[in-house]
Design brief:
- The protein has nine helices and twelve strands.
- By secondary structure, the protein is α/β, with parallel strands linked by helices.
- The chain is globular, with a radius of gyration of 19 Å.
- It has one domain.
Length: 241
């Protein structure tokens, strides 16, 4: 079983694990970085479609000769990752995290929990030197997940699309909120928080049995039998909570 997350643009350079491993395809990452470094500042700013403040940050990140690296769950610090208490996990939970936790990345392809990562900014939808990043990473993704029997998908559609050839069981987790008219709506920020809470729940309890995922009941969300099926688990927050 692998538990899938998306990366976040918000990043903080911390270390959760004492030692970091090299990513699975460092040469492919290095090639993308070189293509980005070759862009003049204005071209890079246009490529990312950002204002000067962010553009300068990205440019400086790329050209910093003394770039600092940390591990995957020490780097990302967006809404999802704020709910994951990786620094407080005990030995058993860390071993579970190492075995099951995976972050998909436009720059690194696949990241396990203790793999070394640097600050960066890159989406799957961007094309570097005409490279389609989905195609660029497809062989690596297919190889990694070839013998994985179950993927618990807590990633965004942008990144979970990387698993288009995956032939095992893909369990998609959905978080929606009941509205005053009885309809359901995904509230993006709270759904992201819930994905982080779900990931933390799985690691904290070292969940192995798929049925135990249904017992998650944090932030007002609980499993809904009527909406769920074997490939999609829906967790609903009732109206008014």
């Amino acid at each position: 079983m692998k538990i899938l997350l998306s990366p976040s643009k918000l990043q903080t350079e911390r270390r959760i694990f004492e030692h970091q491993r090299a990513p699975l395809a460092p040469q492919k990452t290095a090639y993308l970085l070189e293509q980005l470094k070759e862009m003049p500042y204005q071209s890079l700013k246009s490529f990312y479609n950002v204002k000067d403040k962010i553009g300068k940050q990205v440019y400086d990140q790329l050209h910093n000769a003394d770039v600092r690296q940390c591990d995957t769950f020490g780097m990302y610090s967006g809404v999802v990752f704020k709910e994951i208490n990786a620094a407080s996990y005990d030995h058993r939970q860390r071993e579970y995290l190492l075995e099951h936790g995976v972050v998909l990345s436009a720059l690194y392809g696949i990241l396990e929990a203790d793999m070394a990562v640097r600050s960066y900014r890159l989406d799957m939808t961007k094309k570097i030197a005409g490279i389609n990043l989905y195609d660029y990473w497809q062989d690596e993704v297919d190889r990694y997940f070839k013998d994985v029997d179950l993927v618990v998908n807590l990633a965004s559609k942008e990144f979970s699309r990387m698993l288009k050839h995956y032939k095992g069981k893909l369990l998609n987790i959905h978080f929606t909120e009941e509205q005053s008219d009885g309809k359901y709506k995904v509230v993006t920020v709270r759904a992201k928080q819930a994905r982080g809470l779900m990931f933390d729940y799985l690691v904290t309890n070292c969940i192995i049995e798929i049925a135990d995922i249904k017992y998650f009941d944090e932030a007002g969300y609980s499993y809904n039998t009527a909406l769920s099926d074997e490939d999609n688990y829906y967790f609903i927050k009732p109206y008014g909570l």
